[in-house]
Amino acid sequence: MSASLLIAATAALVGVALGVVGGWVTPPRHLSQRAIRVLTVLLAVAAVGFVMASAMKSDPSPAASHSSSPVPVGSSRAGRSATGHSSVAAPSPSAAQLPKALANDLLLTIDTGAGSPTLYSWHLDGTNRERLGGTGSTITPIVVPGTDNMISPLSPPNAKTFGIYEVSFGGDVVQQLTFPTSASFSDEDVAFAASSKAVFVARTKTSMIDSSTGTVSPYELFEFPLAHPSDVRPLTFARDVQQIAVDATGDVIAGQCAGPKGQPAQICTIDLRSGNRTHVPGAEGTTMSDAALSPDGKLIAYDAFKENPYGQSQVFVYDLSRHTTTEVSRLVGQNDQPVWAPGSNSCLAFHHYETARETIHIACESAGSWSDFDTTATGANPAWFSPPR
């Protein structure tokens, strides 16, 4: 029976009861006047209850219809993280929240859910997922701006190790860029300077301890023009840097470097024109990784397990000229793998992992404050793709 019928029936019974009390309706002989009064009160209470329940069910107010909506970082409606600290969900991006310059960009991610690394593209709101193909590597390719080509570490079927290749989105090899001379060498760590179109590679060497175990260590760092991969320039003064990143011009390189003796790895930057090296402060005593230089070379994003009230690892941005560090992610779980948007010094994407779910977030800075958006795109190792216009 619907609430409206129940209300109508109750109102009718209350009317009859009031008629009996008022003397307009003859009551049943077995009911006393006291019983009739009690029945009248009970029926009136029931009627009020039905009316309130019906009103609450049909209430279109925000509190009733949007109680599960995402909340911006900093909102007072917060949950509790696994560490006992307050946490909030990040809203999904909208056209109003993201810079117009990024409106047509796509995100690339690597998904290993099917058993082998597979590359996917996404719109920035997490829709239109498209499978681009298997990569054989968990490292997301770097898109060459203005083209449909990517720079990627690959290990072809007949190869004994990884080399760097330029490939099309269709999976065709455009050119092989590096040629490791031995199976003990591997080229998987690569960066690309968008303006100068120079490729940087940090080659590693595996030294076998026995037939099944070995140690991997930095071997050499070098660069070459994408158009002339044979014109190799060794960067011997930076050979110890790993997880490399470069600015748009290729003048500054950043990456993971050795910390003080006995301490975890840190992040450092090296000016390739002068050779000057700078260590990024603020997270000494904990591992820093996944360095990413902004296109103008003035900001460096990284992740660290530095103590914080939100979760485990967080994404930070260090201003190389102002010597200030800003916490960007402020989320529970692990937050890592930051990557700057093409041509942007104020927006980056990063990987968020919490309770067996991987999603990609976008963070943008405005007036000194960072806002975090959950794209709902899944996978890891995000990269950006700006389709040719």
UniProtKB/TrEMBL annotation:
Protein name per the record: WD40 repeat domain-containing protein
Classification lineage: Bacteria, Bacillati, Actinomycetota, Actinomycetes, Jatrophihabitantales
Region (Disordered): 59-94
Transmembrane segments: 35-56
InterPro entries xref list: 6-blade_b-propeller_TolB-like (IPR011042)
Keywords on record: Membrane, Transmembrane, Transmembrane helix
SUPFAM superfamilies cross-referenced by the UniProt entry: DPP6 N-terminal domain-like
Species, as recorded: Jatrophihabitans telluris
Low complexity biased stretches: 59-76
